[in-house]
Amino acid sequence: MDAVQILGYLGALSVGVVLGLVGSGGSIITIPILTYLFHMSPITTTAYSLFVVGTSASVGAVNKLKKGLVDFKIAVVFAIPAFISVYIVRKYLLPIIPFEIVTINDFVITRDMGIMVFFAIIMLCSSISMIWKRELSTNINVFSGNNFPLLILAGIVIGILTGIVGIGGGFLIIPTLVLLLKLPMKKAVATSLFIIAIKSIIGFIGDLDNVEINWHFLLRFTIISILGIFLGIYLSSFIKGEKLKKYFGWMVLLVSFGILFKELFA
């Protein structure tokens, strides 16, 4: 095992740590690690990311379930349209996208490049929200009552994003739950983990016929991530999650610029 692979497995540990601490951000780390350190194609990395983040989030969700923090009614209403969307995208949409999408003079935009650029743009938006976002307030009266139609629409949109780039989407789900349904932050994080677990694993199932899976590597990477989530849950007692999220946002911002530079100019 060379130094790059060791760095990659340390990254796998950090995936779990971040999920355990802030309830989101696991796929933002997983996809660049698998793509640039383990040299996998974006289609494969997004599939692996769904499995790694989904399994790791399941462990975190079980821990939150024991504490009674998961709102099952909201989780089901959000998760059903989300996992239907992600399954359809992974199973039927991605396989029909041609490898070469557009050619402009000598510049070719490939499917892999498109996925990574789209992923980097989502990372960029996510990092900005983590760095400059004011603390979400459950007293914001933008939406009244249990606005389930909007929740279903949000589930569909986030499910499509998950399907295309393999993200868990916690950084989108948590604000949605807080602003639309006024869930307390702790319940929003716990419910988000539950939703991420369901839709990510179902999205991965949609890939089984389209992606060749190296189970030995994938399970090893996932187990390390699961160890990381236990470490993250332990550290959450000592580290303030919101402060950590801001620092994590700066890291995501730098990584997003790095991906854009590598895909478009390198």
Automatic annotation (TrEMBL):
One of its GO terms (cellular component) is plasma membrane. It is a multi-pass membrane protein. This is Probable membrane transporter protein. Pfam families: TauE. The chain crosses the membrane at residues 6-38, 45-62, 74-93, 113-132, 152-181, 188-205, 217-235, 247-265. It comes from Saonia flava. Belongs to the 4-toluene sulfonate uptake permease (TSUP) (TC 2.A.102) family. Keywords: Cell membrane, Membrane, Transmembrane, Transmembrane helix. Its main location: membrane. It comes from the Bacteria. It is found in: Cell membrane; Membrane. The keyword Lipoprotein does not apply. PANTHER family: MEMBRANE TRANSPORTER PROTEIN MJ0441-RELATED (PTHR43701), MEMBRANE TRANSPORTER PROTEIN YJNA-RELATED (PTHR43701:SF2). Signal peptide: none annotated.
